[in-house]
């Protein structure tokens, strides 16, 4: 119930505070007056600090009247909440310069989301370290060089997303069980005169077809990658324009 206000006031145990515990409650009131509210002068806080005294409830009731708390001593939760509100207002008043330029948490999250949406905005593409890093990655991944290092970086990203993610690696690592092939159903188209050589030729032909299929798959992937780069026009964020 009081966690947010206690956290704002840097209370040592905002999550575990229990106002129903008499000792903890009295210590809390002393801390609140000493550190945050400071309504009394230091020399006038003796009765409030004497938390083991039988007269402490009377001292606290007087304190409530002195700070103009509208609740009764029996209304403990309401009293604590009101005193915390008073402390927060005083804390802000004492540190107005500290808080006036602070950004709300929600706004920070929105700003961070916007930055994350465009991770390349703040990159200095002319930085030698950036160029060296992109070139090293391109060489490692065997990606074709390009005059625009940002284009190379995007190509690297596409390759990593398609080939080096955990799912892609796991899929590639899975053993492929071969299916039985009936060679007699595949016509060779010629006859060598030797049954064994004919069978070997059929096997080689099937393997060649499989290699052609893999090559076609890689060609299709390359076309998709190139299209992704071409379809993403170069953006000049300083001018607020898209295109060259």
From TrEMBL:
Listed transmembrane segments: none
Taxonomy, superkingdom: Eukaryota
Matches recorded under InterPro entries: RTRAF (IPR019265)
Family under the similarity heading: Belongs to the RTRAF family.
Classification via PANTHER family: CLE
Name listed for the protein in its UniProt record: RNA transcription, translation and transport factor protein
Gene name of this polypeptide: Rtraf
């Amino acid at each position: 119930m009081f966690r947010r206000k206690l956290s704002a006031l840097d209370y040592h145990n905002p999550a575990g505070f229990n106002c129903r515990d008499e000792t903890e409650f009295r210590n809390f009131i002393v801390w609140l007056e000493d550190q945050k509210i400071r309504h009394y002068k230091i020399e006038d806080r003796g009765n409030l600090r004497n938390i083991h005294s039988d007269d402490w409830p009377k001292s606290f009731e007087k304190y409530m009247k002195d700070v103009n708390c509208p609740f009764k001593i029996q209304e403990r939760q309401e009293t604590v909440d009101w005193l915390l509100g008073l402390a927060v207002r005083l804390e802000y008043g004492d540190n107005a310069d500290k808080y006036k330029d602070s950004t709300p948490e929600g706004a920070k999250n929105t700003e961070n989301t916007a930055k994350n949406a465009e991770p390349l905005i703040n990159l200095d593409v002319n930085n030698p370290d950036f160029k060296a890093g992109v070139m090293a990655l391109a060489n490692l991944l065997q990606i074709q060089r390009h005059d625009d290092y940002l284009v190379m970086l995007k190509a690297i990203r596409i390759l990593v997303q398609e080939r080096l993610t955990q799912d892609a690696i796991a899929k590639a690592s899975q053993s492929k069980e071969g299916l039985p092939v009936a060679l007699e159903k595949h016509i060779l188209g010629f006859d060598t005169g030797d049954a064994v050589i004919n069978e070997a030729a059929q096997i080689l032909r099937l393997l060649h077809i499989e290699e052609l299929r893999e090559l076609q798959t890689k060609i299709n992937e390359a076309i998709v990658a190139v299209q992704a780069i071409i379809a993403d026009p170069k953006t000049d964020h300083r001018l607020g324009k898209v295109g060259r």
